[in-house]
Amino acid sequence: MDRFYVTTPIYYVNDKPHIGTAYTTIVADMLARWRRTYDEDVRFLTGTDEFAQKTVDAAKKAGEETQAYADRMAAVWRSTWKKLGISNTDFIRTTEPRHIEVVQEIWRRVQAAGDIYKGQYQGLYCEGCEAFKNEDELVNGLCPDHKTKPEFVSEENYFFRLSNYQKRLLDFYDTQSDFVVPSYRLNEVKSFVAAGLEDISISRAKRSWGIPVPDDPGQVIYVWFDALVNYISAVGIEGWEAHPADVHVMAKDIIRFHAVIWPAMLMSAGLPLPGQIVAHGFLTMNGVKISKSLGNVINPLDITEKYGVDALRYFLLREIPFGEDGDFSEAKAGERYRSDLANGLGNFAARVLTLAEKEKELACALPSHEFEQRIAEMKRLVHEKMGEYKFSEALAAVWAAVAFGDRYMEEKKAWGIKDEAKRRLVLCNLTLLLEGVAEALVPFLPDAAAKIRQAIVREGEVLNVKKTEILFPRLKIPQLKK
Hints:
This protein is an alpha/beta fold and 482 residues long. The protein has helices at residues 19-36, 53-62, 66-83, 97-112, 166-175, 183-194, 223-228, 230-233, 237-242, 255-269, 300-307, 309-319, 330-357, 369-387, 391-412, 420-441, 446-455, and strands at 3-7, 11-12, 41-49, 90-93, 116-126, 131-133, 151-160, 180-181, 200-201, 203-205, 212-213, 216-221, 247-251, 276-280, 283-285, 288-289, 326-327, 362-363, 456-459, 462-465. Helix 11 crosses helix 12, helix 12 (309-319) packs across helix 13 and helix 13 runs antiparallel to helix 16 (420-441).
């Protein structure tokens, strides 16, 4: 059996999940479900990044001890993903012993390679990014993502010799042209590396919250060095050596950590590199990135309580071309719900199942040639577009098949055909098309797909059909302003 290992980034616990982190996690979940349809052994990892100064600050603000706060918030993240139907097979926390042990072992390996040394660091540090910034990365002296002024920091730290890996990284990018998706993001990474790499600070002094540097308890390991190792600590070093991650899914703002620092760390430690880094754009509101630090977050559970989990998944995967920024509003999501889900797929499924149920059972060996071709073409396009990370186009192919079925139903006036043989042929065509649509939708809309598949019970060539509950009830939805 083929194996597939997909990850999300691990998320900070200084606040609850928001729609941006839900987007990342839903994309990874969709890829995991897709690969399961091919009977692959799928490992899907997500989790929480807890050794950050922002965790300490948030705990203090909440009046809680830091570990107790982290425990409580990690439970919130677990619960949210469960409510959103995320099918992760593992959940890693950076405060777990299995993670701490592996981080310290990776540190020792990098140190043994001669790539860690102690030195004095001075620079601008953005707490929101948990990263140092160069002057040219700031806009009017502020971090462009968090709109805050970085703090000037000066202390003795351990450094990683990132500069040693400039040529090896560029050579690697040349041999792995699909290492970062979309391709223009890889070009950005290559330009950044080609401009020259500086050694980076990988520890912090005089902090109690963090993983201690081996043999130097006065320092803790920098949160990003610690966090990146989670992908290994979840499977163990031997597990990673046998099968490193196939796909890391993330937002575009952390590509450099994953496409530059992470592979350099792995090279230094003598470990294999991941297959691909797949990056989506930002979700915005009125053109401004949605983020906790900016206070413009949307709780994904608020959306799913109104419209359901599948509706949220559909909007994020259909409305926003993957890799690009996308603007979110409830009105836009509501319009997609009304037009594509309630009036589109939901209405088509209800009509087909209602008519087919009246026949008690249908003997359907194959659909007519036209329908057979249409179903095969839909499946071919979904497979092709998924492989290209063009999720919106994959869904468009499914909806084109639904539209085809609607037109056919109207043309044949399926509800009024008196001739039994003709009626059964038409209903076989429509039911087999709906069955194919449900199969194609398993990665995208798992709840709706499951309900349709449960409604169509196959016994060889005989289909027994029962109406299902309304997939997407018509709701009062705010009108989208033109």
